[in-house]
Design brief:
Layout: H1 4-21, H2 23-26, E1 33-36, H3 40-43, H4 58-65, E2 70-73, H5 74-78, E3 83-89, E4 93-100, E5 107-108, E6 111-112, E7 124-129, E8 133-134, H6 135-138, H7 142-145, E9 155-159, E10 165-171, E11 174-183, H8 195-203, E12 208-209, E13 214-222, E14 225-232, H9 239-245, H10 249-258, H11 266-274, E15 278-284, E16 291-296, H12 298-305, H13 311-322, E17 328-331, E18 334-336, E19 340-342, E20 345-352, H14 358-362, H15 364-376, H16 383-392, E21 395-402, E22 407-413, H17 415-424
Parallel strand pairs: 1-9, 14-15, 20-21
Antiparallel strand pairs: 2-3, 3-4, 4-7, 5-6, 7-11, 8-11, 9-10, 10-11, 12-13, 13-14, 15-16, 17-18, 18-20, 19-20, 21-22
């Protein structure tokens, strides 16, 4: 269950982002260095962020951490335009949450009344310690520490297969000390290119694999509309099922393609919006030549994809996409049913054509440990579910229904267990 391409694609996006954007060329003065890893929550001491996560709404932020000590104009404080800083002060550090400002507001008594909107999202987060912290206390993975040279660079970006990017700045006079750490501040990777240049560049690389979704067969620019032709894997996405059972299939596929910072074509989303273009994507079956297409005009595209998704919206979008081919036969005897969110848990139901057997299923602790071992496997795409559960503060339930005995065995991971698992994966 889950699709392998999600894991492969997230890594591909990370590599593409780091390589194509040429961060060394963009900021030659600081010469930032990028490093890829599998999981920053395992390799770095992410506890420095004190449980703050990006892409939570302001309402969720306040419910989880209380009202901020102050709300500041990011342009005045950090020369960052279009943002407010929701600042939380602790005895050992300050946590700055950067929230895009959609309306003008005035600072009144430490609160920007007009911009305190409960549904606005925290875009990225900064951890500012009161005094520098040791590099070795933050970077827990020795292999990563060894990649940090004692050269001129003081800025490092570490990205993982879950699309997290952590940036930290070293002290110039002591490379063993960290001055501050940012979570998912990707503003440096934004580059300005024309649609025509992007289309020309990507046409030279076709066909482009999209994992087990299929592959990108063609990309064209027709006046103010960019067109994608995608050869779909019909064993995963049945065309009749798409149109009859999923009336919002175009949004489901569109989210996987264009979600800001996450989608397969996320590198293109801001360019499409800046140039006022529309989008057309056509899915076709290369075997029987079936095809369906969808046009998204500029205003609809901008409204849906200009801003990043909240964590819960991202999880819901991910579930809708993963449910497209379900019920899905994983093996001859195992079928994965429809995934759902229920009572603060993500529920993954399986139907097994058999009965519980051997010591693995006779003992719940053994079964739970078995699932933990599977989640620790970096090749397991189910890790994406677990990470999204952590971001949304959800638990995880895996339900196994055995047809022979009509018995259901349920393996439950509480939200706190999910949090601990993230650090071990």
């Amino acid at each position: 269950m889950g699709r392998v391409f999600v894991r492969l694609l997230s890594l591909a996006i990370m590599i593409c982002t780091f390589v194509s954007c040429g961060i060394v060329d963009m900021i030659k003065a600081e010469q930032p260095v990028s490093i890829n890893t599998s999981n920053v929550y395992k390799d770095l001491d992410m506890d420095v962020f004190k449980g703050f996560v990006d892409k939570m709404t302001v309402g969720e932020l306040i419910r989880a951490h209380g009202r901020p000590d102050s709300i500041l104009d990011a342009n005045e404080e950090a020369m960052v335009e279009g943002y407010d800083i929701y600042q939380y002060q602790y005895p050992d550090c300050t946590i700055d949450c950067y929230v895009p400002r959609k309306v003008d507001g005035k600072l009144i008594g430490g609160i920007l009344e007009d911009t305190l909107k409960m549904n606005e999202l925290v875009d990225y987060i900064y951890y500012e310690p009161n005094k520098s912290i040791k590099l070795k206390s933050f970077v827990l993975n020795d292999s990563i520490s060894q990649l940090i040279p004692q050269g001129k660079s003081v800025v490092y970006y570490i990205g993982d297969s879950f699309n997290n990017i952590v940036r930290f700045r070293l002290a110039k006079d002591n490379k063993g000390e960290i001055l501050n750490v940012a979570l998912n501040d990707i503003s440096i990777f934004e580059e300005e290119k024309k649609l025509s240049a992007i289309v020309s560049e990507w046409n030279s690389k076709l066909p482009i694999s999209l994992g087990d979704l299929g592959y990108l067969d063609a990309i064209n620019l027709n006046k103010k509309e960019i067109c994608f032709n995608i050869a779909i894997n019909d064993s995963l996405l049945n065309f009749d099922k798409l149109t009859s059972e999923n009336p919002l299939w175009e949004q489901i596929i569109g989210d996987r393609l264009f979600e800001k910072g996450r989608g397969l074509f996320n590198w293109l989303t801001s360019v499409v919006i800046s140039e006022g273009a529309g989008v057309k994507f056509m899915l076709f079956n290369k075997n029987n030549h079936e095809s369906i297409s969808k046009n998204i005009d500029y205003s609809s595209f901008k409204r849906r994809y200009e801003l990043a998704f909240s964590n819960i919206r991202r999880l819901e979008s991910f579930i809708r996409y993963e449910n497209l081919p379900y019920p899905c036969k994983l093996f001859d005897e195992i079928v994965c049913e429809k995934i759902e969110i229920k009572d603060g848990y993500l529920v993954l139901p399986f139907t097994i054509d058999g009965e519980p057997q051997d010591e693995l299923y006779d003992n719940m602790d053994n079964l739970k440990q078995h699932d933990i071992d599977l989640l620790r496997d970096t090749a397991n795409p189910d890790r994406n579910y677990l990470f999204l559960c952590y971001k949304c503060k959800f638990g995880l339930k895996k339900q196994y229904y055995y047809t022979f005995t009509e018995e259901t065995v349920e393996v439950v991971f509480s939200p706190e267990e999910v949090k601990q698992l993230i650090k071990q994966m």
